[in-house]
Amino acid sequence: MLSNFVPLILSVFVLAFFQACDSQPAKPGSATTPTTIQPASETVAVIDRISKRIKPEVLEILKNPNEVYIMAVVPDYQSKIGYKETGPSKPLTATQIKELQALLLDDSHYILDMTKSCVFAPTTVFIFANNGEEVRVLSSPSCKQLKIMYKDQKSVYLDNDPIHDQLESFKETTKKS
Questions:
Q1: What is the domain extent for residue 84?
Q2: 144 three-state secondary structure
Q3: Is 75 within the bounds of a domain?
Q4: Which residues, 6+ apart, have CB-to-CB distance to 28 below 8 Å?
Q5: Which residues of 129-161 are buried (b: 16+ CB within 10 A; e: fewer)?
Q6: Which domain CATH number covers 73?
Q7: Would 128 disulfide with which of 47, 65, 93, 98, CB 3.0-4.6 Å?
Q8: pLDDT per position as a tens digit, 164-173
Q9: Residue 136 belongs to what H/E stretch?
Q10: CA distance 177 to 160
């Protein structure tokens, strides 16, 4: 008899969920509103919420790198870092670095109030270097997530759905230049 009520209870929860979603205003950078990417010439946008998830020394390297490289990778779940390099690293130009920073260092380019469950399968790593220190930002197009790695600290995952297409376009353009 209880099994007769399960579909009814489930449908009530689903209906309540969709009503709650419809009543919420769209957040900047969400899938329902267009994302505006800052021009590379402007300063890096507000990063208040990101800075609560990323340690200050990591943020400093991301904001002020001496060099940034891009490299193709494949997942390697047996290794400590979770990926294997598949090609040579390529240095980014100063303009490309500014464009990448404009994409990565803006709170509105991430969905920070929820976590996504998926298998993180990186295809690209950006290596930000500053005075011998490195921060690695891995990109997983299948998850639409970034993974920020620094030394032996716990990695930070960021859901980059709002800028996924722009980041993929940036990677393709960078590979061609």
A1: 36-176
A2: coil
A3: yes
A4: 35, 108
A5: bbeeeebbbbbbbebbbbbbbbeeeeebbbbbb
A6: 3.30.1490
A7: 65
A8: 899 999 999 9
A9: strand 133-140
A10: 24
